[in-house]
Specification:
Blueprint: H1 2-13, H2 22-37, H3 40-49, H4 66-73, H5 76-85, H6 100-107, H7 110-119
Helix pairs in contact: 2-4, 4-5, 4-6, 5-7, 6-7
Length: 161
């Protein structure tokens, strides 16, 4: 798939030395800015124009996805938009292995936590580099999890405590 994508679109994003073009770098910066500022119209437009932006990670030491950034900035409308475009984004972790669900839980973002569980119930089972899941501290410190653990396919056989 990657080879096909690069064949079709790679010429627009890479120069003759295989480096990202300045135009692509600016596009990625604009994407990250749109997500962090909560500009839903800009994010939706950019996503329509270039669906590959959904996979862009922040170019800092944390290496976070746009979904991570939207959760951390509290932009539920952006979270909703990104999950609609690709629910599997909830399975990706940052450099520390923290999923978006873990970030939402640690921040006490009730609505986003519910959205993430509904869109990507398998993220409940993922572990970060500290061998923690979203069901364990430090994720559960700010909010008890009982209200969010509704019977989803991933939790149907689990006991709610």
């Amino acid at each position: 798939m990657r080879i096909v994508y690069e064949y079709l679109f790679g010429h627009q994003q890479r120069n003759e030395r295989g480096e990202e073009t300045e135009q692509r770098k600016q596009q990625k910066r604009r994407w990250i800015e749109g997500v962090t500022c909560g500009d839903k119209e800009l994010v939706a437009q950019m996503l329509r124009e270039d669906p590959s932006l959904i996979a862009v990670r922040q170019g800092d030491i944390h290496h976070e996805t746009a979904l991570h950034l939207a959760v951390k900035m509290g932009h539920s409308s952006i979270v909703e938009l990104l999950l609609a475009a690709s629910p599997t984004l909830g399975l990706l972790g940052n450099i520390r292995g923290e999923t978006v669900l873990m970030c939402a839980a640690m921040r006490g973002e009730d609505r986003m936590t519910e959205m993430l569980i509904a869109a990507c119930p398998d993220s409940l089972d993922l572990v970060d580099r500290s061998d923690c899941t979203a069901l364990m501290p430090p994720c559960t410190v700010k909010r008890p999890w009982a209200p969010f653990l509704r019977r989803t396919p991933a939790t149907a056989d689990q006991e709610i405590v």
